[in-house]
């Protein structure tokens, strides 16, 4: 027995990334109404057009998610368009690091904002709706950087470890409201199915398959701790 996604509504952040576009298409093909949120309107439009060409429902919101008001606007526009919200998928949009002793402070702030502050703001805006309706799914797609310590990972490593903690708090605080929290920690996912030596790569399609699998687990099953893929 699986949990049908037909007719459900999802917000996907980090929407300008290739990974977000792939996940959005997979969800739309499963019957999900999609809102893609990101910073680059041209890339968002490409993903939305691809979904619509396959018969899916999608729109995008160009936003830097720099404030709670901006995050709330994404949630409000989604619920106004589709009549509700069931799924929030938080995708970390980019990596940048450095040795701690000479790490760029500007880079540190940009990475922490995009990969940790934005997920908090979106969760802050969406959770009251999910708690009131007593069901929902919150998923973070981060990185295997959350599973260990690697030199020069810098701000990204700190953000990924923080993202895991944020998701664990969401799980602990909202399980009684029928809300599940999921964390995927992939390595580098690329477009090509094989590398230069003919070895299989982890692809964005692989990650999308994991997303679908987790979201379609029966509702009575609890969410997972970080899954390394």
The structural class is: alpha/beta
**CATH superfamily descriptor:** NAD(P)-binding Rossmann-like Domain
* CATH architecture title: 3-Layer(aba) Sandwich
Count of β-strands: 7
Neighbour order of strands in the largest sheet: 3-2-1-4-5-6-7
How far do the termini sit from each other? 24 Å
Shape: globular
Count of discrete structural domains: 1
Unreliable segments of 5+ consecutive residues = none
What would CATH call the class? Answer: Alpha Beta
Mean pLDDT: 93
Radius of gyration: 17 Å
Q: Can you give keywords for this protein?
A:
229 residues; alpha/beta; Rossmann fold; seven-stranded parallel sheet; 7 strands; 15% strand; globular
Outline the secondary-structure elements:
Blueprint: E1 9-12, H1 18-29, E2 33-38, H2 41-53, E3 58-62, H3 68-82, E4 87-91, H4 105-133, E5 136-141, H5 154-174, E6 179-185, H6 204-215, E7 227-228
Parallel strand pairs: 1-2, 1-4, 2-3, 4-5, 5-6, 6-7
Helix pairs in contact: 1-2, 1-6, 3-4, 4-5
């Amino acid at each position: 027995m699986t949990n049908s996604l037909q007719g459900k509504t999802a917000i996907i952040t980090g929407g300008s990334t290739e990974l977000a576009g792939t996940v959005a298409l997979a969800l739309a093909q499963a019957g999900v109404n999609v809102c893609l949120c990101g910073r680059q309107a041209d890339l968002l439009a490409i993903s939305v057009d691809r979904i619509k060409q396959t018969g899916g429902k999608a729109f995008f919101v160009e936003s830097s998610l720099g404030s709670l008001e901006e995050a709330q606007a994404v949630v409000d526009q989604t619920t106004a368009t589709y009549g509700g919200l069931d799924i929030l998928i938080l995708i970390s949009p980019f990596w940048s690091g450095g040795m701690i002793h000479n790490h760029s402070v500007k880079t540190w702030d940009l990475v922490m904002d995009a990969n940790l502050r934005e997920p908090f703001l979106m969760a802050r805006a969406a959770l009251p709706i999910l708690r009131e309706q007593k069901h929902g799914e919150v998923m973070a797609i981060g990185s295997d950087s959350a599973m260990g310590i690697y030199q020069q990972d810098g701000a990204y490593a700190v953000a990924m470890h923080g993202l895991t903690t944020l998701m664990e708090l969401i799980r602990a605080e909202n399980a009684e409201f029928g809300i599940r929290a999921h964390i995927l920690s992939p390595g580098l996912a690329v477009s090509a199915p094989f590398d230069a030596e003919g070895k299989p790569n982890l692809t964005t399609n692989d990650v999308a398959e994991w997303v679908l699998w987790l979201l379609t687990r029966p509702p009575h099953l609890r969410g997972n701790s970080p899954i390394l893929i």
